[in-house]
Amino acid sequence: MEFFDVMRARFSVRSYQNKPVDDDALRAILEAVNGAPSAFNAQAYEVVVVRDLAQKEQLAKACFNQTFAAQAPLMLVFFANPDRNREKIGETGAAVYSHEDATIACDYAHLAAAALGLGSCWIAAYGQKAVSELLGAPPSWCPVALLSIGHPAEAAKPRERRPLTDLVHDEQVRK
């Protein structure tokens, strides 16, 4: 699939078929994640792959009861890991860039899933402490996003987007 077709095919999916994501597809998604740009190439993030139903149900609860997430056969949890870039860029940069790295990595997974004909949903509402505890993350790691992935149960409906004239500002912000 061509890149711009992938972008048009990507929608948030909240209803999944009871069909597993095969290992080759997961590997391709994780390879895309690994190729995501990162500050200083530090790759200051970690990804936890969750397939276990009980674990997904607990994560869905930690995501303020977004139960659709547990229906997906696969969830990826992206953590910022500032320990990976702290020596290179210092404390302040480590915190900021590790979050940005994890965010970009999640987006690459989102697009890779769409390229493979899979559906996914970026979940940004969750209890950080609950997610960290459920997955046994070290205290320095911070969850940044969860991504449910699976075969869509229904066709996605495009949502209206802001017009570029409202979104883009030439040279400076319009008042």
Residues in helix, %: 40-55%
Q: Helices and strands, in N-to-C order? A: HHEHHEHEHEH
β-sheet strand percentage: 15-25%
Separate helix tally:
7
Strand order of the largest sheet: 1-2-4-3
The CATH architecture can be given as 3-Layer(aba) Sandwich
Key structural traits:
NADH Oxidase; four-stranded antiparallel beta sheet; 175 residues; 4 strands; alpha+beta
Question: If you had to describe this structure to a student in words, what would you say it looks like?
Answer:
By secondary structure, the protein is of the alpha+beta class. The chain has a single domain (3-167), classed as 3-Layer(aba) Sandwich (NADH Oxidase), CATH 3.40.109.10. It has seven helices and four strands; from the N terminus they run H-H-E-H-H-E-H-E-H-E-H. The protein has helices at 3-9, 23-34, 53-62, 68-71, 86-115, 128-135, 164-167, and strands at 45-50, 74-80, 119-123, 142-150. A four-stranded antiparallel sheet has the order 1-2-4-3, with helices on both faces.
List the helices and strands and how they pair.
Blueprint: H1 3-9, H2 23-34, E1 45-50, H3 53-62, H4 68-71, E2 74-80, H5 86-115, E3 119-123, H6 128-135, E4 142-150, H7 164-167
Antiparallel strand pairs: 1-2, 2-4, 3-4
Helix pairs in contact: 1-5, 2-5, 3-6
